[in-house]
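User: I'm curious whether this sequence folds into something compact or stays loose and floppy. Could you predict its structure so I can see for myself?
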Amino acid sequence: MSGPKQRGALAGGRSYLAIPGPSVVPDRVLNAMHCASPNIYAGALVEMADTLLPDLKRVARTEHHAAIYISNGHGAWEAAFANTLTPGDGVLALITGSFGHGWADMAAQLGADVAKMDFGRAAPIDPARVEEVLRADTERQIKVVVATHVDTSSSALSDVAAVRAAMDAAGHPALLMADCIASFGCDRFEMDAWGVDVAVTASQKGLMMPPGLGFVFFSEKAAEARRRLTRVSPYWDWTLRAAPDQFYQYFFGTAPTQHLYGLRAALDMIREEGIEAVWARHDRLARAIWAACEVWAQCGALGLNIGDPAHRSRAVTALSLPAPRASDLRAWLEREAGVTLGIGLGMAEPDDPAWHGFFRIGHMGHVNAHMVLGVLSSIEAGLIALDIRHGSGALGAAAEVIARG
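Assistant: Here's the prediction. I'll summarize afterward.
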């Protein structure tokens, strides 16, 4: 059995997890969770839980329905399908990275007839191609269109409103589902204004929580699709979760007590800052990261996975270096600087040497200027230590964005 990894002399103190989820959990959230187990039948917890769905819906920008699940994002994926699909229903999956494939594959495992439109790992969804496919579906076999707002693996940001416009232009009645797991509370998302029928997310990214809670928001059109189903798994059924007669029905059993206290604190932080300000903060910090990366890339070694800034997520940035230098850089940063970067998930198979040429920076949720500048400075130190070619002036470029907006 191998012993613990040896850390460098400068890696002591609080480590920094700069991966795209789980994200940094604020002390305020941790402190809220650090409490004795409460009464789950009456009192403060029961009263507080009634405040959660309205505030979650404010972040999603919806007046429709919301449900909480004790799950990760995959559970939210399954809940969306369980309440809307029967075996044999057609699903059109719009894919911009590994997680788009994952959601599509889940639909197939549940018996749906899945057609994948793969836009690659370095580009957003093309609405014109979506409209063309939907126009050709004259028999209306497609019941659901699934789109990943931000694919966490590729960092591609897609225009969900444009997907709805393409569906409307084709006159197609399918439900539109959006995976907002990486984008929720980071990139602008407007469920009702954009015509989204089902949106899914989870607690461990922009909501600044530990993993463990999944959330599904659904329109009245999606609720009607649920009512047409003859059989839904009792656990995944969103009907009573969205409008419970009794407290336990929010969760189909025992409540995730400490998680609920943490969620209340996280939603308070978002409400106090204001969702527009939250989006603006993520945008500015993301642009600072891109500014640094673009300078580093001038020597040709480092590359941003998404070339057009308009199609980059404000929550995660996917990058590449000649293999195996990305893995070298990640290892150096964790060992010598106490900073953990994300692996290049889904950009190559783990047994392919190319896998070691990708990494990601997470900048979602509880993140501010000094955290971003600290990560960027640590990365530059790693580039220097490992003798990886990079342009000079990156930190100044990032500081300019921080200073001037």
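Summary: The chain is about 40% helix and 15% strand. The CA atoms of residues 54 and 66 lie 8 Å apart.
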